[in-house]
Amino acid sequence: MIKLRVLEILKEQNHTKYWLYTKMNLSYQNFNRLVNNETRSIRYENIEKLCRILNCSPDQLFEITSDEEAS
């Protein structure tokens, strides 16, 4: 399973979810699903936004976990 590391990156950078939410220009419902890995797809433009705002690359943004960890 592939998951976003947004919450971990925010913690590493001492930022809050709210800080990121104000910069993403998404509805709170969609934003929350995104950062909590509760979505089935993500638009390329949102990946780019996340990378620019968090100053990271796509490979830092994602991680692959085993199916057992996802449960």
From TrEMBL:
Family matches, as InterPro entries: Cro/C1-type_HTH, Lambda_DNA-bd_dom_sf
Gene3D superfamilies for the chain: lambda repressor-like DNA-binding domains (1.10.260.40)
Boundaries of every HTH cro/C1-type domain copy: 23-61
Coiled coil feature spans: none
Gene Ontology molecular function terms on file: DNA binding
SUPFAM superfamilies hit by this protein: lambda repressor-like DNA-binding domains (SSF47413)
Domain of life according to the entry: Bacteria
Pfam families: HTH_26
Protein name (database record): Helix-turn-helix transcriptional regulator
